[in-house]
Amino acid sequence: MAIENLIKIIKTKLADRFLRNLGWLGLSQIFIRVSRLAATVVLARLLTKEDYGLAALVLTTNEFVNVFTQNGIWAKLVQADAADLPKLCQTSYWLNWIVCGLVFLGQCIASFPVSWFYHDPRIVLPICVMATVYLIIPIALVQASLSNRENRLHVSAIASGIQVSVDNILTIILAFFGFGMWAIVLPKVLVAPVWVIVHYRSNPWRPTSEFTLDRWQEIVRFGRSVLGVKIMHTLINNLDYVIAGRFLGVEALGLYYFAFNAGLGISMSAINALDTALFPHLCDARNQPREFKARYFQTFTRVAWIIFPLVILQSGLAPFYVPIIFGQKWIPAIPLLILICLSAIPRPFANVASNGLWAIDKPDWDFAWNILFTGAFAIALLVGVNWGVLGVAVAVFLTHSIASPAYTVWVSSYISKVMDKEIVAIEAKE
């Protein structure tokens, strides 16, 4: 009897589409993390702190511009009613080309004031080279969105796994040949076609030859708040780099950038996998309030089981594995690594809350919160930078540890009340 019950539980878990998707994404992240760990070890031993700092400036600039490709078009296609999908897909295809073309030009133009801001003309060319990625990804953006809508997240897992793993392998090769910061920058351009090919071949949707922007207002209306949230997230994820680089110099930024990637890389991989799987999982139940509420609150338990052991283990072992794996020169980064790593604990819970608001068509509320959080975060960083990179790391830890739990509790309370009202209304009709 006990064995039969165990088999039944296992079958139930395997039938859970969210867990299957999470499993695919988790498997992808294992391949990514293994290759990234190898790349990080090689880079830590072959690159200087200045190389790390220059690469951080280039990648940070790219992140700020890249956010405009995460403009909510994909989210609208995931959330839209099935009857509206053919028209919205065709419009989204052309909108993606327009947006990505403008983003390409914008990043190339931005490279000049960015180099002036940091007093380093060496970053102009790599920033422009990275912008060429935007001239290829619109080919498969709609297909990627539809795969997410259909909960076929194994496609995203395969695309990301291959793309990032090849990126890391190329990084190792170029670092051995003495490419310096280009060992980090150039592979990200070379592997972009991998993502496009996987998504394009995995979904049968193809655009017609007709150019149309019909119902673009509907897409933009939904997407503007999603874009606003993404912009705030990008600011949150990169403000520490900007402030450290501007006030503390390239070498100090290199130390901080290493600590962030070595410390938060694994945790952020888990967080991103959860985030990718969660939104379509919630949207699938948005017209079933009882099921939606169950899925929403069940996710917190799953997040806790993943994130707590991962972060505590990694931060606790940092003093031992950093000098052994990465080398003695990175020992000063250990306190930074631990603080940044611990700041990851509340982040996925706040992400669950954000996805909950998006699924019930309240992305504007999430946008408003992120504006407030970004302002508080910027102030904390500007105060913390007076104590060097350690002060910046403390600011990151404290801001996330205080603000994210408060937001999670507030949103969860609201969603619970809304779903309870809808449940009562449905039961009254029955």
Automatic annotation (TrEMBL):
GO terms for cellular component: plasma membrane. It is found in: Cell membrane. Keywords: Cell membrane, Membrane, Transmembrane, Transmembrane helix. It comes from the Bacteria. The chain crosses the membrane at residues 21-44, 94-116, 123-146, 169-198, 303-324, 330-346, 367-385, 391-411. It is a multi-pass membrane protein. Pfam families: Polysacc_synt_3. InterPro entries: Poly_Biosynth_Transport (IPR050833). Belongs to the polysaccharide synthase family. This is Lipopolysaccharide biosynthesis protein.
